[in-house]
Amino acid sequence: MGSDATVLRKGDHVSFHVRDIYLPEPAEFKEFLDPDTEVLGRIVGFSDAEPSPGVFAVVQTNERSKVIVPVGDLLTIERGRAGKSAKYRGH
Question: What's the pTM value of the predicted model, to 2 decimals?
Answer without folding.
Answer: 0.73
